[in-house]
Amino acid sequence: MIDPWIWIGLFVLIAYTIEAITGFGSLVIALSLGALLLPVPELLPVLVPLNVLMSGFLAWRNRQHLDRALLLKVILPLMLGGTLVGYLLQNGLADQVLKLLLGLLIIWFACRELWRLRCSTPARAHPAWLNRLLILAAGISHGLFASGGPLLVYAMAGTALDKFRLRATLLCVWFTLNTSLSVLLLVQDRLASARPQLLWFLPLLVVGVVVGEYLHPRVNEQRFRQTVYALLAVTGVLLAVQSV
Predict the structure, then answer these.
(1) What is the dihedral of CA 36, 38, 40, 41, to 10 degrees?
(2) Based on the structure, what is the number of domains in the chain?
(3) What does the pLDDT look like over 16-41, one tens digit per residue?
């Protein structure tokens, strides 16, 4: 049989190419596809540090648009607390349960985005209490799967931030949270075994970004997003079915 990590490498290449084209989802895509082959806890020590490099580079490039007040006073306190809770819960949940929860999250996110693209529905702001609850839930999701993006983006829907400030702020969130997760993985000595894969996958990250930058002006982004969300929806269903 083919080593599963060869497939994971292909998923990493696909995920970072998609991120360079659309600006979203490298970790969610790589993790959801990878979870079809390997346990979620085994994937995190590889995929999280890779994302630190990507989000750190992009956060630095977009630092002039950062909304520091929103980041430091609202998002990070709730997300960091939620991430710690999720990380602790991860150690007590069976891999099948993690796959089921991840699959359901991916299905909800993909179907919601497909509906929005189809109907062009405007985003509506949430009440303050619900917004904070969603951010906390996003942190828990990030601690469980390093995939708090779907819930956090939903929490930020309808805010007064323009797309440049929102993107820069979210990039700083991922860089901070994934750096924190990497430190936790290091303390638990879970990064050492992932070192060979990290070294092999680093060039794939670079290739994905270069290919994505080349394809970005040459593809219809809306149709491409529809294809990606449809792929994610199918992946989420497969994860949920596989966990039963």
Answers:
(1) 180
(2) 1
(3) 998 887 767 788 899 999 999 999 99
Residue 49 tokens read as 């540090």
Place of tokens 């497939």: 7
What is the rounded distance in angstroms from the CA atom of residue 198 to the CA atom of residue 195? 5
Structure token pair of residue 145: 């799967």
71 token code pair: 């980041």
Q: What is the dihedral of CA 151, 224, 220, 118, to 10 degrees?
A: -60
In terms of residue numbers, what domain contains 136? 4-243
- Secondary structure E strands in the chain: none
3-class SS at 217? helix
Indicate the residue type of 108.
W
Count the Cβ atoms, other than its own, within 10 Å of residue 144. Answer: 26
Q: What does the block give as tokens for 30?
A: 């790589």
Nearest CA to 146 out of 236, 41, 233 is that of: 41
Instruction: Tell me: pLDDT of 125 over 80.
Output: no
pLDDT in the model for residue 204: 93
From CA 147, how far away is CA 32, in angstroms rounded?
9
